[in-house]
Amino acid sequence: MTNNGTAPKTLGKTRPHQTQNEALVFEKSSPGKRAYKMPPLDVPIVDPAVVLGEAHRSESAQLPELSEIEIIRHFTRLSTWNYAIDLGMYPLGSCTMKYNPRVNEAVARIEGLAEAHPYRPDALAQGILEVIELLQRCLIEITGMDAITLQPAAGAHGEFTGILLVRAWHESQGNARRKILIPDSAHGTNPATAAICGYQVENLKSNAEGGIDLEALARQVDEETAALMLTNPSTIGVFESQIHKIADILHAKGALLYMDGANMNALVGKARPGDFGVDVMHLNLHKTFSTPHGGGGPGSGPVACKAFLEPFLPTPVLVRTARTEGPGTTGLAGQVPETTGQLHWNYDRPQTVGRVRAFYGNTGMFIRALAYILANGPDGLRQTTEDAVLNANYIRAKLEDLYELPYKTASMHEVVFSDKRQAAKGVRTGDIAKRLIDYGFHPYTVSFPMIVHGALMIEPTESESLEELDLFVDAMRSIAKEVDETPELVKTAPHSTRVGRLDEVQAARKPILRWRPSQ
Amino acid sequence: MAYPANYRYTREHEWIVLDGNIGSIGITDYAQNSLGDIVYVDVPKVGEPVTANATFGSVESVKAVSDLYSPVTGTVTATNEELKSSPDKINEAPHDTWIIKVELADPAQFNVLLDAAAYEAFISEETGS
Fold it and tell me: Which of A27, A136, A198, A229 would suit a FRET pair with A10, their CA atoms being 20 to 30 Å apart?
C-alpha cells in the first residue's frame, strides 16, 4: 500500500524528496549498512549451533540494514505526517479531542512526581499519594459519587471494572442476575463489556427523540436485569432529561444504573451523575480531563460508585490513617475530609473484585488531570462545559441548512448530522470526512452512532476559538457545495495527502500484515 | 431488488426459506445495503442450537459489526464455508447467499414471520420513504 498514492504536488520542476511518499524501512535496506559498531569480542567464541542445537537458526531474519541517519530521517519524516490537536481542530465526535495544556506536562515532569517508584514504601511516597488522593476527592465531588478507583487504564477497562462491581454486588445479594440492557445508540464497548462479564445483552430501542423510551424500559426491566448501561448525554449529544425516572424504574426492580462517562465533558460543573440516580460510572481522564488521547496516551478510566458498591472496589484502596493528635481531628470528624494523617494502600478488602491493573493505574495521567482541574478551578471547569456546548451548537446552527439533522432535540457537547441529502448525489459521510482532510481538518466521527444512518458526528470541544470554528464551518459548507457541483471531487478525496484513498474493503478482507521480501 | 415471495423475513432483516424441515437463513438486500461492504461473517458451529429472536452470529462490515438474529428455533445443520474467503457474496447476491442452515424445532415458526409484502412495508416505514 505504499505505491498507490496520488502524484505529489510539484514546485515547478523540482520535487523535494522529503515530500514524497516514504518507503518502508525494509525497502530502504541495503546489505552491510550498520547503525552501530560492536567492540572487539573479549570473551571466548562459542559456536551457537553447538549450544542451541535444533533451536539454532541459520537463515537470515531479513532485518532492515540502514545507517543511523537514515533511520532517524525515516521516522522523523513519518512523524511529520501525523495530524494532531496541536496542528488543528480534531472534531472526532464522542472522543473529546481537547487541547492538552502544557502546564499539565510541566507538572508531570516535576522530578519528585516523575521519578516516584511504585515500590517505594508508603511512608516515603506521601507526596504522590497526596496527588492521587486529592484527584480522587475532586472526581468524587465532580461526579457526586461516594467512592472511586483510579486503576482502570482506559474507558472500556473502566466499564469492565464497573460491571464487575455490579456483578459482585448482585452476587452478594444472592443472585448475579442474567442480563444487561443497552440502548441501540451505545458505544460498542458497552455490549462487549457486558458479554465479557458474563451477561446477556438486551437491546433497548431509542425513542423518536433519540432517548430512552420509558415504557419500553419498564417492560424490559425485570428481576433478572443486572443493570442498564447508559451514556448521558447520549451518543447523539442529547441529555436524558428523564434520567431520574430511568433510575427509579431500574431501582424498583433491584437493577443498577451504570453511566458511561464518555460524554462527561457536557456535564462537569453543571450536573452530577450521583445526584440523578447513577450507581456506578467511569470517567475518561483522556477525554474530559485533558490528558493525552490516542497514539501516545496512555488512557485512564477511573470508576466512581455509590457507597454500597465501595466494598467491592479493586485493591488496593487508598486510606488515610487518622492522626492521633493535633488540629483538624476534632469536632467535625466524618464531615470534613481528614487531610492530616498519613496515606497508605489497604490490601485487606475481603469483598474486592481484585486488582484490575498493575500498581495503581496510569499515575502520570492522574498528575495531569489534577493539574487541569486545579488550574481551571470550579468556575473554570463550569466555563469549559459551557464553551464545549456552545461550540457544538454554533456548528449545528451554521450547518443545519445544508446537512440533515435527524434529531432536533437540543444538542449538548456534540452534534450529529446525517448524509441523507448528500447521499442523494452518491456522496456518503465517509467521502465528506476524507474531503475534510484536504481542508486541513481531522475527520469527524463517521457512521456512528448506529441509530443515525450515514452519521457525521462532530465534537469541537471547548478548545476551539470562534475563528477556528468558522474555518471548519466554511470547509463543511464548501464541501456541501462541491457535493452539488463536483461530486467526484469529494468521492475520490483526499487529494492533498501523500497517500490517496486506500481500499478499506480490501484491507479488511485480505489484510497484508507484514512485509515480505518477494513483494 | 425484489424480495422472494417464498421467503419469510424478520424485523432484524434476516430471511429464511424452507426446504422440508431445513431452513436456510441469510440477510436481506436492505441489510447488506445498510451495512456496506461485508468483510467477515461469524457463525455458530454445526450442531449448536439457535433460538428464535436471539443472536446466532455477527456480520462485520467496514462500518460496523452487527448481530445476526435467528428467525427460528432449531439446530445448525450447515454453515456456508464459502463466506470465509468470500464474504462479499452477501453484497453481490444477498437473497441467494445463505449463512447457516437450521433444522427447525417447530416448523410453525416459519409462518408467523413477515412475508415479502409485509417486510417491504416494514422497511419503507423504517426508512420513512
Answer: A27
